[in-house]
Structure formats: C-alpha cells, structure tokens
Amino acid sequence: MNCSQVRESLHLYLDGELAPRQELELEAHLLDCECCRREYNEVRQVVDTVRGSKPLYESSSQLRETVEVMVNRAAKRQLNQHRLRTVLPLAAAACLLVMLGVVPLFQETSFTAYAADVHQRYASGKLPLDIQSDQPQAVSSWLESRLTFPVNMPNYPSEPGEAKAYTLTGARLMQYDGEDVAYLAYRMNNRPVSLLVGSNHRIIPAGDDVYRSGNLLFHFSEKNGLKLITWRDGDLVYALVSDVQVKNAQSCVVCHGSAQERSRFENIAPEPR
Amino acid sequence: LAEELVQDAFRRALAAKVRPSPSTLEATRPWLFTIVRHLWKNEVRRRNRHVRAISAMSETATSVEMPDAEVTRKLLQSEVRQAIDSLEEHYREVVVLRDLEGLSYAAIAEVLNCPAGTVMSRLSRARECLRQSLRAAGNSSREVAGR
User: Fold this and answer.
1) CA-CA distance, B12 to B36, in Å (whole number)?
2) I need a labelling partner for A246 at 20 to 30 A (CA). Which of A182, B52, B61, B67 fits?
3) What whole-number distance in Å separates Cα of residue B138 and Cα of residue B147?
4) What's the DSSP call for residue A271?
5) Per-residue pLDDT tens over the stretch A224-253
6) CB contact at 8 A, A89 and A107
7) B9-58 per-position pLDDT tens digit
8) Could you say which residues from 63 to 92 on chain B have a Cβ atom under 8 Å away from some Cβ of chain A?
9) Is A179 in contact with A149 (CB distance < 8 Å)?
C-alpha cells in the first residue's frame, strides 16, 4: 500500500471493515511511514473521543418502561402463535436523526430462559463456581475486578438473633450474548437459589405478572417449575431463579420476611395492564 | 418528539407482519433504525420546516457536586454532542450509526438505503469535520482555562 491508499483505508481499518490481508499491509505501512502514522493517530483520537463519550443521548426511564410494556404485551399475544422468536429481538431503537438515545432491548424472554437454564445447571452440579464464599464483600470484590459494572450484593439485614433465610455460596462469571453477567449462587432451606446480574443495555426484565414496589417493577414468571423474578434497578438488570413454591409477590417475603424488611414489600402491588 | 417517534417505531415494529430474518439482533437493529428514520422523515415533511435534531432529554446538571473526572467527562460529552449536532444531517447519521450505535457499514447502508461506498465516504468526511470542531472546542476550552 502507498500513502494514498492508506489514507483512503484508515477509516475502514479503524472500523474493522478491511480484509485481514489489507489490514496487515496497512499496519506494515504505518510502521514505516511517520506521516501516515500521525494521520492515523489523529483520526483514531477523534473516533475514540466520540465513542468514549457514550452515552450521549439518553432516553427517559418513562420511555423505557413504556417500550418494555409494549414488548411484553406483544410477546404474550404472540406466544400462542409460536412466533415469539421472530417477534422479539426488538433491540435498540435509537433515534439517529432525532438524536435520542438508545433503548437497546434484547430478547428478554431468552434471558429468562437463559437464567432458568443456568440455575438448572448449577442445581444439578454441572456449573462450578469461580469463587466459593459466603462473604458478600469477598464475592463483591472478586466480581468488581472482573466486570465493567458494579454489582451491588443484596445483603438485607435480618432481625436481631435471627439467621438470614438465605446464605451466599459463591459466584462465577457467565456470558450472555457476548456480554459478561455475574452469576451468584445462594442456598435457602438447603435449596439452590440463583441470581444473575447484567447490564441493562441489552437485557430488559420480562414476565407474565408485573408488580410495582416504589420505583421498581418486578416481573414474575414460571419456567419448567421454576419461579423467575426479573427487575431493573439503576443500570443493572437482575434475574432471580428458585423453586420456591409460592406465587408471585409472596415469594419476596420468603427471603425478606423479617419485620424490618416486610415493610419494604407491603406496598408491592400488581401493576395495572 | 424524539420519544414519541421511538414509541411509534416500536409500535409499528411489533405490529409488522414481515420482520427481518434471521431474527437476530444484528438483523433487527438496522430494521428498527430504518423505521425510526422513515418516521422522522415523514415528520419533517409534515412540518415542512427545518427541524433541528435537538434531544428533549434532560441532561444531568453539572452544578451538583461531582468528582473532577465526572465533570471532565460531562464537558467532553457536551463538546462531542455539539460537534455532532453541528454536522450536516447525512454526516450526522453515519457517525451516530457507526460510532454511537456500532452498526457495520453494510447495516448502515441498509438503513440509509445507499451504497456502502457512500457510507464510507460520508464517514470519512464527517470525522474530518468532527476533528476540526473538536480541535476548535479544545482550543477555546484552553483559552477559557488560561484566563
């Protein structure tokens, strides 16, 4: 490649659109040509600056909720028609021209399916943990050094003199659609309970029954006899899986049943459809 | 307006009889962007006047106490946003789709209904404009800081 060809290909190179052989030729030229190298660095700086400033445009939580409800309703309607998979990779709808931010929705039903599958693998002993510890702080530190998002470990207080209903067992890193998610293993009454935590950029909560508690919307569903609860809190989406045999919001009280905590859930109520 | 368009786009996407195949994220995103873009174009035509692409989204106020790094990041975001907003529409589209949304050239070409070569040339020109805008913004920031 000569200088002219390199200048024409710089953007393709930065965007990963060059063929491997052309990439090598361009890189070889950059090694030898200071002038082109300077140009490359300047272009790269612009691109890095723009990409590094994301998210430039953020959608409101109200819009996200509205779209989530629309997606969930459509999913329910079409479940019976066996078209769910063709309906819902309703991914990001950024408004390019209106410069609105993105609402990157993923196939939320597949995330609940994924969470149920992960839980079953763990329950059957086929999913070893990366770290085994019952100390939330130790597990949290371990995850923090490996994830791009902070994981706030649920650590609700129990009543004085009363043991927690659940204990932490450990954690491991998982991948969902190419992105890291944290898998946290708990035990309650000697039964496994799983909690998956991921970034909300690609996952949205979903479930047949929706309950509101304060600003949080909890989505309840069942899969293969398992109870699933998904919800968003800040930038994170959580999926809780267990085989607790109680219905919907009552399952919150199973873990958070102390007098102190119960008040947190007394105002939980079905979200009008 | 922006939020209404997104809602409308999702409504139409969910009601659509024909959807992208295979039903993957890669195939679905350009399709959704195309719907949003058509809605936007229709809206512009309906209004029959120049509509600036201004986000109605609320920005986080920087007046509250924030760590220095956060303030710097907000300032940089503001500069980048101004630079992108000042681009001509056909340049702004490719930058947003490529650098903010991460679409491939082929996907962008699909959204904009133009050849991939056009995407490439527009992106090259758009980034050159951004380079100049950001350089100018950087210079003025330094001047302000130096006073």
Assistant:
1) 10
2) A182
3) 15
4) P
5) 788 888 888 877 888 999 887 666 555 565
6) yes
7) 888 887 776 767 656 666 777 888 888 888 877 777 776 544 443 343 33
8) 73, 76-77, 80-81, 84-85, 89, 92
9) no
Q: How many CB atoms lie within 10 A of CB A196?
A: 23
Instruction: Tell me the CA distances in angstroms from A105 to A67, A209, A239, one per residue in order.
Output: 9, 19, 16
Query: From CA A52, how far away is CA A102, in angstroms rounded?
Result: 16
Nearest CA in chain B to A18: B105
Cis peptide before A20 (omega within 30 of 0): no
Can you point out the beta strands (E) in chain A?
131-132, 166-176, 179-188, 191-199, 209-213, 216-223, 226-233, 236-242, 269-270
Alpha helix stretches (DSSP H) within B54-104: 68-85, 89-95
pLDDT for residue A161? 60
Q: Is B14 on the interface with A (CB under 8 A)?
A: yes
pTM above 0.90, yes or no: no
